[in-house]
User: Fold these one by one.
Assistant:
Number 1:
Amino acid sequence: MKGKQFGILMGLALLVAGGLAACGKSTSSNGNSGQLAAKQVVKLSAKSEVTTLDVSKAADSTSLTMLYHTQEGLYRLGKKEKLINAMATKTTVSKDGKTYVFKLRSNNHWNDGRAVTAKDYVYSWQRTVNPKTASEYAYLMAGIKNYDQVQSGKLAPSQLGVKALNKNTLQVTLSKPVAYFKLLLAFPTFFPQEQSVVDRYGSDYGHTSGKTAYDGPFVMTKWQGTNQNWELVKNTHFWDKKNITLQKMNFQVVADPSTGLSLFQKKDLDATMLDGTQVANLKNNPSLKTFVGGTTYYMQMNQKKVKALRNLKVRQALSMAIDKQQLAKSVLRDGSKAPLGFVSQNLSRNPKTKKDFATDAYVKSGVTYDLPQAKKLMKAGLKATGTKKLNLTLMADDISVTKTVAQYVQAELQKLPNVKVTINSLPYKTRLSRSNSGNFELVLSSWGADFADPINFLSLMSTGNTNNNGDFSDTQYDAAIKRSENQDANNPTARYNDLVTAEKRLMTQQGVVPLYQPATAEMWNSKVSGYVWNPAGMSRGYQWMKVEK
């Protein structure tokens, strides 16, 4: 299963309650009295503009986060990745794990007053997988029966394995069991759409707040498609409106952390994201909050292009030469953490012990810093491959934080014998294009989870995966991934152990070099409290936000 790839911090797009990849621990108390203020309005910021409110086409962090709060899907994701019924009131799954039947609540309505029904889900999903729609996130539906044939144009979208049995009953048929299918249903791509509204506005649908249908706790207003200010207001047609405390959120785009902090200090914002320097200066401020989880920043090594990188000792040397603790604490200084592996911390837990997956799958040699050992490994690896000098180009995005990381990695790697590293900084889209085409030697990448399951990371390194840009290939790794998706798909413990095996194999073979887990560091108004994002960024933070006296 593929995921959404971001440049460093690209996924950390929205402040307060996070963004798609702005994931972390949750908090529900700020130490205040708990008495509500009469004015339930908050002033928030986003790192970028909204691009679309079209459920089928939204792919950027800001747009997806707006959809989380203006739409209601089958489930929401709560604390510790717990699924919470939203539109679904009861779910029945067949013994073979391939047929799901959802009973839907009958008391939710679109903002025009029309009831939300099972047909709205059928229409939405068929529209998303229709190749003419060109949905970036359609692949998340790959497990649904006939998906591949619909995407290739061999079958009509109406043949997708989803149907309305009646007004309030939705049936979904999968091509094979998908253990994390319910988690996917909390993602905006799986939200319903009101066909009459889509038909009415055609190509203009989702491009302004007035040409969109809403069935969630809030409705967007004052967004004309390109402006950098908009509002979310309480939806009077939402089924659970009595439990929505917040009345309005005023948004503005603030891309620069210095501008954001200034606005926060003037009380023109109730929260703002910080950079590393600001975090260091404000580390003792009680308004500072940091969140880590759901994203890993890592280095890929192109084994297809560079002969020496096919040698395990060379790959291990490159990893051991980089002090990840120093990178996180002394270079970034924004609350980021050294990684335990490729799969991020605070993402998924052991179904029996509830232990963090990253802890269960930890391989010390895959992330440790040991320069003396790295030098020995590099010397042996170069000798084994007949390489006298290793000249490598490190490709990275040209934004300031990434440049800093690249310079640090360059300095660390050049401590190795006969190794020289040259940095090639490129615009994000150019860097991503070259990464995807395999046109690099070393490249800095990041991954923000789309859903809270280790497979969202681990599938990336399977042989032939389009995101496996370094061409890592290992039969034992592939076998563990395949077991998790086939014979063990309906056995949570066996499947979990398969994924632990895969992660350990990836780190033992040094298929990638995990560098750090990015943090979101923010300043919060002490009078604003509520639910902060969980891993994979799927929580409904705004729904539970409130302003206290």
Number 2:
Amino acid sequence: MWSAHHASVKNTFEDENLCLYQVDFNEYGQPAWTDGVLHVGSLVGHPLITENRQNDLETLLTSRRTAYAGFRHAEGAFCCVHYQKHNRTLSLITDALGLRPFYYAQFDDAIVFSTTLSVFAQLGINLTVNKDAVIEYATLGYYLLDHTPYMEVKCARPGTALSVSTSSQIQLVKYFDWMNLIGEPVDTEHAVDSINSDFRQACEKYAGSDSHVLTTLSGGLDSRLITCELVRQQKEVSAVNFSQADTQDLIYAREFAASQPVHFSEVTVDDTQASSVEIRLGKYWREQMHPQFDKVSRPQLAWSGNGGSVGVGFVYCGDDVYKAACTQDKNRLAEAFIAQQYAQVPRSLMKNASYYQARLKQNIVRSLAEFDGIPLQQAYYLFLLHNDQHHHLAIPYEKVDEYQMEFCVPFYSWKVLRHTLNVPMDELRRHKFYLSWLDKHYPEALATPWQAYPGHIPCSLASTGTNQWSLVKRRRWKSKASLTACYKSLSYGKSAGIRRAMFFVVCALHCLRIKNASSHIAFVNKITKWNTKMAS
């Protein structure tokens, strides 16, 4: 199963062992499907071995017979399917970070797989809740390990290949190991030059022969750096900003755009957290038929700064977390991480809250243990890549059939990120390394004010406007959304795991503006996202 919408299927293959449905909206302008005498193969995303994903697909299918050698060179975000007709063997392979993962489940003698998780709930199959996963999503915003909301369904881990034959025995192979990228420490100047070279090459492969490109542009550094590189490549750039009025995110993007030869568009939104920028851009760009739509070389392919703030800026490594990591004690680090992320299961709202909180900590420790053998500071960095960043695009891509857009994400290239692994972690924190990179190779990115993260190196230029972090702190859930969350919680019965009477009171106080219960409402809304039930 390759897509949630059968009616949109463009490529299909069926025999007595396999039913394969593939949707391609032609975002890249390059096909990614082959059906020959020996095999069937397909892609979502772009492996980024070369500029051409169809050529990349042929390379990957050939290399499949040599222990996934070709896949270890792929630096893009992609998922590949390969079916060998002669021996009836199916292989599924996700990229080095699992940014475009496959989800899979075994029911009796059948293997069901998809690149979207929502498919499984539509198949009429009995699914049971994965309680650990639901709590992880509600507290952290993503799942750990190979968890999904359903016990029966697993998510492919980064750099993983699955193989299954007519015997229906699943074999998992880790073809890409990030720990192998760790070598001798390098000085900052050398790492800055190296990451710059690989970043530019990744951008060149994504851009190909495009003359006019589309990108998001916020008030931060990530999309700004991408814009600088695209301008240097002499691409005509159309940039879109989605922000609240009078915020730094808008003001700084506007000021930077004015300093560059770009076509800049502003879209005012009430709540930047209500939807991902990928979904916003896809819907806005298509539905509004932007004046630049037909001028962009590939109008359904956009550039995104995802991966920069975590991978290069190391934003989730506050002082307490870093100090805990330096002790080399995984339990202590897990506790510091939970505190930093405010990842608390509210006892007033959840039955067995203490148990779920303990399970969350245990699974964080398990996730960190995947990287035993290296200093815990580096293990924590890889933990973020393999969990937080691994799932970062999963939510927007669940709705890719609706907005029909793909994204160029050069910050996620393993060739780019490998240089951060050998920089001292304390040099990587607080955007220190990132700013050194920009200062040397992209000084134009620092010529106008930018929005810095709290606790990180502040912008050196005069600031104005409201920053998004203060907006997040005072944001309230709207009454209608709060009542919807309340209704959803009530519909699950006694086995929901939510203290329904208490939550009803909390929602009532919130709607009457007696109390701001936004964090509790958000927690319960995530608990009920997948229409699953928690055992009491």
Number 3:
Amino acid sequence: MPTFRRVIAFALIAIAASVLYVDAPRVAVVHATPGSRATLENPDAACAACHQTIYDKYRQTGMARGSGVAMDGLIAGGFHHAPSGVDYRVFERDGAAWMSYSRPAKAAPDTARGALEGERRVEFYVGSGHRGRTYLFNESGRWYELPINYYTRRAAWDMAPAFDNVTAMPAPLPVDPNCLHCHATDVQASLQDARNHYAAAPFRQGGIGCSACHGDPTRHLADKGHGPIVNPGKLPVAERDSACIQCHLEGDAVVYRPGRSLAQFRPGDKLSDIAVYFVRASEPGDGRRATSQYEALLRSACKRASGDKLTCTTCHDPHSAPSAAERVSYFRARCLACHTESAMATHHSEQQDCATCHMPTRKTVDISHEQVTDHDIEARPASQGGLQLATLGANDMSKLVAVGGFEAGDRETGLAYAQLAGHGDRAAARTALGLLSKLPARAPAGVDVAVRLGYLEQISGDAGKAAASYKSALETDPWEPTALANLAVLDAGSGRVPEAINLLQRLVDADPSRTAAGLNLAFIECSLDRREKAAALLERLRRSNPDDPQLRRFADTGEYAGQRCLLNPQLPKK
């Protein structure tokens, strides 16, 4: 599932704190949410009246089946995750889809891994099932993704990527509209207080519908097929390619233009007007990194030789996919349409599948979106070769370039380097700070600049400048989670405890899954001898993230981030 907006996780010990960028907080929910079964619209049925054959074929593609109502795509099953001792099960009950999790007390004798039991009603699925599938659930209008995935090739349920070796049940990902954009249609804007908070369902149509590539069909339908409709193949090159790469371009960093988001993309737009994608100038090679298809295609000899003539639809029919029996001949014909030399007709006649040699299937080495077929088309692909990490210097690994020659100024480039800095790249942090410091902290540079600049200033030790940057961001977006979290750290460290409490309370109220912020707030409340309030907050956090080790330890022993505050001072200290 694409990259989400990053937020801060931090350890707050009343006065002192450390701060770093990590993945967004993830949430698992204990109690079921009652309600009627979810439903979705199918506006594409109106297209079938004139395009029945295309409609029928497209409905069988992975794109069309990219998401939907959970019960319509339920894959029942379960597994035992040994490192955490948790048993997961996905099942149907009373016409609804559920996920349960459990761990008996005897499997977790230590305090950090106590007994665990709960279940969650899931409403929607994401993933066509070609490679895998997971499910989404709703908690008071906040939508989350389960921490488990179904993997089709293995025909088995297992942990989501990066969770293989966790020793506690991880909290699942908040559902971001930018990520849903590539799995669903008519994705709704999230409410201001949290990116995973929606007024109703997060999307209205399952899968990638006709409008995702052809735009709003209202006038076309009103004029009985004679009104305007977008045909991506007739658009200028940049707009044509954008119809595909809105979902098939990932990169190492993505920076949105001020006020824009991927969910706002409409056919006919240029993707570069909405977002700029960056990759490392020296990318470790051998094709195993899960690069996006378009990013890899740009490096291919085919694209370099053909230029703008070659696009995604040169080889792929966007309305249908060949059957397993047709696949080899279908794509071989696409290759021979360009490689017309007579020798090509008999080239390795014993092996008709060109992709076997020139576009091999790769097992990816990162946890990003899987690129199964290597689109970096090579005459002689290296089996293990390519540029190895050991040969790259720190400067090579930190240098970023914009994909496809997209225009990138100091703002976009600085924010891209800041994203690398969030992963601990100190060289990127220095570059980002130099670029972003040139920009105004306020509009038109945007909230993103103020937040990233505040983070860079904070890790550089300039608390005063960092606080000013965070305050600037909050003037425009009072719910910005990174600014709220890190400004709270600075306020608490400067003795402005009431201000820190207000910021943390706002963050937790917006999304109770923000466990780190909630723990910080609970520790402050406990330290101020407001133990009942602290205990109630911990219970609220536990409902969202019941297996968090720090939460368990704090609740059971009073220990948090190296200090102690007993919630019940009558209990013996452990």
Number 4:
Amino acid sequence: MESAIVSINLFGAVALLLFGLSQVKDGVQRAFGARLKAGLAAGTRDGVRSFLAGLIATIALQSSTATALMIASFAERNLVAPRMAQIVLLGANVGTAMTAWIVSLGIGWLSSLLVLVGVVLSRGTSNARKGGGSALVGVGLMLLSLHLIGIATEPVRTSAALSAFLVMLDNAWPVALIFSALLAILASSSLAIVVLILSLAASGGISTGLIIVLVLGANLGGAVPPVLATLRAPISARRVTIGNLIVRAIGCLVALPLAGYSAQLFDILPLSHDKLPVDAHLIFNLALAMLAWPLSRPLAALTARLLPEPSSMPDAPSYLDEEKLSTPVAALAGASREVLAVGDLIESMLGQASDALQHADPSKLAAISVLEGRVDRLQHQIKVYVSRLGQADIGEDNRRRAMDVVDYAINLEHIGDIIEKGLLSELAKKISSGLTFSRDGHEELTRLFAITLDNLRMAQTVFATRDAALARRLVEVKEDVRRLERQSAERHLQRLRDGRAESIETSSLHLDMLRDLKRINAHIASVAHPILDDNGLLIESRIRQAG
């Protein structure tokens, strides 16, 4: 019965530590999420800045796993070079080791004060105050959990069963390393296991060599959760987490045979045995960073060979079959399907921009430039393909269809340019400057984004079906968009006259985004013009009234 109570107390204290870590991560992301991500993305231009960015982000988030997943998402969007991503994770590993060292300083008496201040702050109205309060509560709970872990393990330290188990591990260091790694994987945190080792070390019943081996195992296991979290991610993201696992695994394999010599050195140095786990944790990660940093380029090349890109290139056209050029109808069908695929890319770009407006997340913008490059290349390939088809006598109907295909491809490419050169820069400026639209202004832009996405989907259907009624509706909706844009601009000017601070700060951004969305809708509606013209419904750019 007593052992069951001890186990419950110990696991409960570890669970509280993990909950405190998650509170810190969630609070920091709520308060500084967009700026933290923007800083992490901007801080990866050279090795030193990449290392510091990973270190600072991990100390702020209290989680190297969170940093690893963020930098993997940036690598997925080509926002960070593979080599720099590996250096960021070296900094993250040092950051989590520094966190363990800081929380072991014996400042548990601050826990109640931090929880109290955090709760008071979390009552605030702004996201920054709520997030900061949640983070302080998390730190307080972490410090409290250290105290509870110490209390929970006190009866265990004198346990004969524990002593026998530690003796067994001390005689089988590879088993001890694997055992510690499994615990870190189950906890999804190397920090939690290092803290647990710290508590056991306080009893003095665990050898210096075994402490080092257990710390190595915690480091190895801590690299596994990001790998598991990115198993279904694109290749570029998986390379980052696999590279981090390779670095830690090699580091542990090299350090394990040297653990005995390291233990002798630690025993000579004037270091406290009670704090040895966090000291060893920090020294190992600093040494690993210094050794692996110069090898970051070969490591990136190795992960590229281990996880090669699929053989089919993403920019290769799927439906432009050279053999079908001799059959105009089949060739035009393929070109039409390829143009629809370009329209899908444009929809993805608009969706990313809309998400960035909603969540102020700079990572949502990273994919837009990549997608726009694909749009440019595909529309060029479509034009070349259709031009080759036009060199033969294909008949008047096929010739007009060919022109419609090329016109739609060109309009989609123009839309991509507006999104990248207009909306992308405007949203990036808003996010980086921490600007916020007024509630009414935000709702107006959100509605116009939603209408634009719906219109693009309608245009795709119009192009594929050549439905005259739907084409007529698309042109009518374009007029609705013009009216909405004009009304939103007028309301915005009224808010300026009323002196609303958010509207004053974001005035140029609001009006520029309205203008860009109106231009996008004009290009979208152009797909309907040849269809209306063929049906005698378009006269001098106006729809002929029915009846």
